[in-house]
Design brief:
This protein is 34% helix and 17% strand. The chain has helices at residues 37-41, 50-57, 77-82, 89-103, 140-160; strands spanning 3-7, 10-14, 22-25, 32-35, 119-123, 135-139. It folds into 2 domains: 18-57; 80-160, no CATH class.
Length: 161
Amino acid sequence: MLKYLLVDQAIFFERPSRRTGEYKKCLNCDKEFYAPKWLLKQGGGKYCSHLCYGIKKVGCQTWNKGTKGLIKSNGGTFLKAVTKFKGSLKQYKLLHYKIRKILGEPKECSFCGEKIKRIVWANKSGKYEESACDWLALCTKCHFYYDKAENRRAKNASIFL
């Protein structure tokens, strides 16, 4: 049952504590601090502050020890795995930029007629020519299904040849 206090004609209810975490000792400075329950569930609540955490980690091995310079990108493996485009990623992006300049931003999907979703230019033939008749305006969903069906046709054609 809730207890209440009368202070200057106003009633204040005494509520049970809402703190569900624990009081812990910092691993660095032995200071007692409160760690909330959600932080303890994530495996935290070991240090009282970012400063103590940083001091404790001085001298520890870093995650990128042994690597030199920047970490390398995928090196264009996306193009080899997903498209029939022959060339570098830079050339692929440049071609799509040129197509957007020639044909403009597509307004609606050629298949479903959707105007709200993101609409992109998709290649029809797989030859990636700069002519306007080789491109089709598709939303991302229809583009995915269009490419999937095209890949399936290509696989079946190679089996029967």
